[in-house]
Amino acid sequence: MSARAKICGLTTTETLDAALGGGAAFVGAVIFPRSPRHIEPLHAATLFEQARGKAKIVAVTVDADDALLTEIALILKPDLIQLHGKETPERAAQVRTLTGAGIIRALSVRTAEDIEAAGGWEPVVDHLMFDAKPPEGSALPGGVGASFDWSLLAGRSFGRPWFLAGGLDPDNVAGAIRTTGAPLVDVSSGVESAPGVKDPARIAAFLTAVRTA
């Protein structure tokens, strides 16, 4: 079975159309003001309505408080909420109860020890995501184009479906899938022409590479 893809940080109709047209299984809205891909919940709800029923809608958050999560749940109504901050498993359970959405937990990876942390999350999430630790001093927890040693995931299995993220692009994603056996892949900066500016042609090329990996 071929891998499936999530295109994250979409902000325009043109790029969402490219993601849906290329067969993305997940589309992501980043709701985090410090990100160049940030989009307000109301804007996201209007934009992503055309994706409903075609791809899973993911709201990406970073240590969001209850007020913001409630706003996201009521206005955007995402299928999944991605936790990309310092949330704990207990917080993940609270987010699920508060929003009614499924949970993706992003884990920052630099060493094999970082991957071992997945075990503590499996009981409370729907999906895991293995992303690269950002460079020291980065203001963002992800979406900076960094990657990690993908061979750390080779031959591993997990109790939840999992995404490979971090540094993927149309040129390397097929090799990354072959190295890791990832069932799911996530891309953001790797399909951009500038920070926060998605390129429909790169989105299409990425999805083709995933489909044929």
Mean pLDDT: 93
How far apart are the first and last residues' alpha carbons, in Å? 10 Å
What's the number of helices? 7
Percent in strands: 15-25%
Name the helicity range.
25-40%
> Radius of gyration over alpha carbons?
16 Å
Unreliable spans: none
The largest beta-sheet arranges its strands as: 1-2-3-4-5-6-7-8
Shape: globular
Structural class: alpha/beta
> Using DSSP, what is the number of strands?
10
Query: Quaternary arrangement of the chains shown?
Result: single chain
Largest sheet: 8 strands, parallel, barrel
Order of helix and strand elements from N to C terminus: EHEHEHEHEHEEHEEEH
Question: What do these coordinates show?
Answer:
The protein has helices at residues 13-21, 41-48, 66-75, 89-99, 112-116, 173-180, 200-212; strands spanning 4-7, 26-30, 56-61, 80-83, 102-109, 127-132, 162-164, 184-187, 192-194, 197-198. The radius of gyration is 16 Å and the shape is globular. Helix 1 (13-21) packs parallel to helix 7. The mean pLDDT is 93. The strands form 2 sheets. An 8-stranded parallel barrel has the order 1-2-3-4-5-6-7-8, surrounded by 4 helices. A two-stranded antiparallel ribbon has the order 9-10. It is of the alpha/beta class. The protein has 7 helices and 10 strands. Helices cover 30% and strands 21% of the residues. Helix 5 links the parallel strand 5 and strand 6 (127-132).
